[in-house]
Amino acid sequence: MPKCAVSSTQKFLVQQHITTSKHQANKQLNSKQRQLFLTQPTTSNVRSEFNIDLCRSLISADIPLYKLKNKVFREFLEKYTQHTIPDESTLRKTYAPSIYDETIQKIRDEIKDSSIWVSIDETPDKEGRLVGNVVIGLLSEQYSERILLHCDVLEKCNNKTIVKLFNEAMGILWPKGIMYDNVLFFISDAAPYMVKAGQALSVVYPKLTHFTCVAHAFHRVAEVVRDNFPKVDLLISSVKKVFLKAPSRVNVLKEMYPEIPLPPKPILTRWGTWLEAVEYYAEHIDSINNVLLALDSEDAVSIDTAKTVTCDISVKNDLAHIQHTFSCIIKTLKSLQNRHLSLSESFEIINSTVEQLNRGRGKVADAVRAKVDTVLSKNPGYEELQKVVAVMSGESTVKINLDLSPADIVKLNYVPVTSCDVERSFSQYKSIPRDNRRRFTFQHLKEMFVTYCYGNRQ
């Protein structure tokens, strides 16, 4: 309690001070503090625990810590929690690192000495950094949740940096010594540096199978289809331009055909979106053509181009051919992204799609078959996983090249055949460094990202 010095030689000064409102307020405050001390001797620990829980909750809910600067929000928290709300910098610098360490320990306790699979990918972020994410999963006889283990900035994008990132992540998981025999599966995209990294890692991790994402593979097959139908590609791009940021033209479409959706806006790097656009135009090309005829060609060059293409009979025939022969690729891409598929179910989908594509006729179908053979033959772990599926299906004469025990083979039953999980992690990552949250150091960003993903994993 603040003290006020008064003369002890003059009694009336002491009595006068005791009656002041300042002394009475301080006396009451001191009484409350003493009572709190007697009932809760670890007051500082209680406050620390509150700050930890507050910080963890904000991060898990993806609520920026700077929101604590909002006066109304602070007053609300203080009113109903009866705690002093710390500054956001205090939470970020003092509490977020301890929560990150706590999260990593939870991951270690969950994995322990069990077998795992690993997935790695990289992407540039808004600051121009090349960020690599490491996602792992527990290998067992049933589906397990995916865990973001590590996130770091790569100096370059090559096989050496990927191997280094992989080993760093395993060192975080097993700090007392990496369990090399417990890493059974590594999935990535099919970039040449990833394939080289997989070869290098297979030397250090003796039971490791490197498998490249089959969703990426079928997406490259879909690109072959697009390349062989330039008029259909022109149709999709020109109609997209006609209605892009043009509310008046959209209104014309809605007035004439209120029951049909707007034309799709495919993104070429997003799996299967071009083929989905083909399905749309195969069903609605006549309606779109009528809408285009109602528009003035002088408004935009794209309108005139779109009118010409939609009236071309060869375009309509190509749409029918693509939908009949290659629409199975869309269904395959969607089906393989199901996280709960077993390995046998995934390969059943893959084999069924390959069979359907092999039944196609014509030059484009031949080019697609050749592409399918190429992407699957270049997949370093495709043949090995086929053998694993055969063994689990009851074929006793199959020889698996890796030194896997029967228990290890069973654990591979729920390995993913796509890299969707690490791709999804980048969507979560990019939501954190928003335009008003760009001053994070990467260390603080990593701590919040790993904590956020662990609290919201699926």
Account of the 3D structure:
With 458 residues, the chain is α/β, with parallel strands linked by helices. Strands 3-2-1-4-5 form a five-stranded mixed β-sheet, with helices on both faces. A hairpin with a 5-residue loop joins strand 1 and strand 2. Helix 14 runs antiparallel to helix 15. The longest helix has 24 residues. It is flat, with a radius of gyration of 31 Å. The chain starts with 10 loop residues before the first helix and ends with a helix. About 3% of the residues have low confidence.
Beta-strand content bin: 5-15%
Number of strands: 5
Strand line-up of the largest beta sheet? 3-2-1-4-5
| Basic shape | flat
Terminal CA distance reads 51 Å
Helical content, roughly? Answer: 55-70%
Largest sheet: 5 strands, mixed
Radius of gyration: 31 Å
Structural class: alpha/beta
Order of helices and strands: HHHHHEEEHEHEHHHHHHHHHHHHH
Mean pLDDT: 87
Our count of helices gives 20
Contiguous low-pLDDT stretches (5 residues minimum) are 32-47
In short:
With 458 residues, this protein is of the alpha/beta class.
How is the secondary structure organized here?
Elements: H1 11-18, H2 21-39, H3 43-60, H4 71-81, H5 88-111, E1 116-124, E2 130-138, E3 146-154, H6 159-173, E4 183-188, H7 192-204, E5 209-212, H8 214-227, H9 230-243, H10 247-256, H11 273-293, H12 301-310, H13 313-326, H14 328-336, H15 343-358, H16 363-377, H17 382-392, H18 406-411, H19 420-431, H20 442-455
Parallel strand pairs: 1-4, 4-5
Antiparallel strand pairs: 1-2, 2-3
